[in-house]
Amino acid sequence: MPEPRSVGLVSAQKAVFETPITLTSGVTLPRYELVYETYGTLNADHSNAILICHALSGHHHVAGRYSEDDKNAGWWDNMIGPGKPIDTERFFVIGVNNLGGCHGSTGPSSIDPATGKPYGSTFPLVLVRDWVETQARLADQLGIRQFAAIVGGSLGGMQALRWTITHPDRVRHALVIAAAPKLTAQNIAFNDVARQAILTDPDFHGGDYYQHDTVPRRGLRLARMLGHITYLSDDGMGEKFGRMLRSGEYKYGFDVEFEIESYLRYQGDKFSDYFDANTYLLMTKALDYFDPARHYGGDLVKALAEVQARFLVVSFNSDWRFSPARSREIVKALLDARKHVSYAEIDSKHGHDAFLMEDPPYHAIMRAYLDNIAQEIAA
């Protein structure tokens, strides 16, 4: 097998939608834009397209780099590219920044054409089913009637699951990684604490901080620090940082002393420099609301009754935010609904973030499953 390579230099594209969309909340957006990237070549019958759905803090830049000196490859560059598990020499891969995002798609920081000012607090809540609808409209623009696969981790995996329910005839395979059929009370609690950090920041200004030329940086920083703790495993954090001191001795104060403190503050500072606080609120609320069984009397089997896709469900044993037990709930419901599903539970020390890592057993399973999809297309 040839050595995996990068997709190389990439650029983002923008799709404009002039047809209004009415969201699940009842609010109608008269127009909106989605920023996306594509890698690989769409084949003659448009049967080799794969949609990548991003997680809470993700975006459309999934693979490649923007320039020769760009130090930051796409967030899933280890998974997508020539010779990689999602092989761009065989698949046409699409990454999209979801509606409500802060990386070019219409969101709270975008200009509301009705006022000439940023939407801010007036931007509506967006649910996973709304993202699926906008992604379907993007697929229509690109001439893609059916996806060979829809792939996502965490909140992205929830989108992949939702796709199979909302548009069962448009998905041949769904790869649902480190996800859950709905959030636990503990997960909702974590999200609310993170939101409260932002909402109570004096610089938040009710969500209209753009007009005050400020950013609720303290709240966003704390939200990210809290979230980041839950994405890591205790063993992984202990192995990397333990109780290491920056100076080698106690300083008897409240400044940064332990290496883990330094790491979390660095992550919080970095995140607050590039992510929008209103988008963070929207994304966590979409997580809270996700529950495809809600309109089926809480019965996930009934929710999956019309699904046509085949599934690969993957979990990680050190992921306590979306534990393997939650993935097994999805697997059991699919089996009870008499659907085709493969399941893998990976031994990993990386916690919830494991779905982003270059882990050989994990990548081998992804590669094997996607090889079979490529063979289906070629047959």
From TrEMBL:
Q: Which UniProt keywords apply?
A: Acyltransferase, Amino-acid biosynthesis, Cytoplasm, Methionine biosynthesis, Transferase
Compartments annotated for it: namely: Cytoplasm
Catalyzes what? L-homoserine + succinyl-CoA = O-succinyl-L-homoserine + CoA
Q: Which Gene3D superfamilies match?
A: 1.10.1740.110, alpha/beta hydrolase
Q: Name one Pfam family in it.
A: Abhydrolase_1
Q: In which pathway does it act?
A: Amino-acid biosynthesis; L-methionine biosynthesis via de novo pathway; O-succinyl-L-homoserine from L-homoserine: step 1/1
Q: Where is the AB hydrolase-1 domain?
A: 48-356
- Physiological role: Transfers a succinyl group from succinyl-CoA to L-homoserine, forming succinyl-L-homoserine.
Q: Which family does it belong to?
A: Belongs to the AB hydrolase superfamily. MetX family.
What is the name of the protein in this document?
Homoserine O-succinyltransferase
Gene source species: Chitiniphilus shinanonensis
Which gene carries the instructions for this protein? metX
